[in-house]
Amino acid sequence: MRHHIILAAALAVIGAGQAMADDLVRVKTGKSVTAAMDALQTAVEGAGATVFARIDHGAGARTVDIDLGDVQLLIFGNPKMGAPVMSADPIAGLFLPLKVLAYADKDGQVWLIYEDPEETLDDLEVDDVHPVIGKMRGALEKLTAKAAE
């Protein structure tokens, strides 16, 4: 019996990891991390959204003698999209504003990666604003595609 419980727990963890991986959208680019993030920031600002922060995780790690390589996060949003979602369920504020990470994998390939907002917010009471979440999804697709060009 105990072995069955351990096996069930292991399968649940593996399934959760796979589900998390399925929630992430990866966009390949031939640019450097910095160039991709510069392009993303320009695209976000050009679309009328607000950039709240750009975090250089690589620089932060170097201050404690850890080499992460070049890893940057852009945090941005637009109240026209975020406010209706948070109005439907204030807990959405835990997941908003939107975020995109740029990093190079072990082979040097640079990626822009973000979590699909539909998946991120699927456990909340946001059914009334589902079209807005679709707009968030579309904006992330367009912005990261433009940045990756």
UniProtKB/TrEMBL annotation:
InterPro entries: DUF302, TT1751-like_sf. Residues 1-21 form the signal peptide. Keywords: Signal. Pfam families: DUF302 (PF03625). Residues 55-117 form the DUF302 domain. Gene3D superfamilies: TT1751-like domain. It comes from the Bacteria. This is DUF302 domain-containing protein.
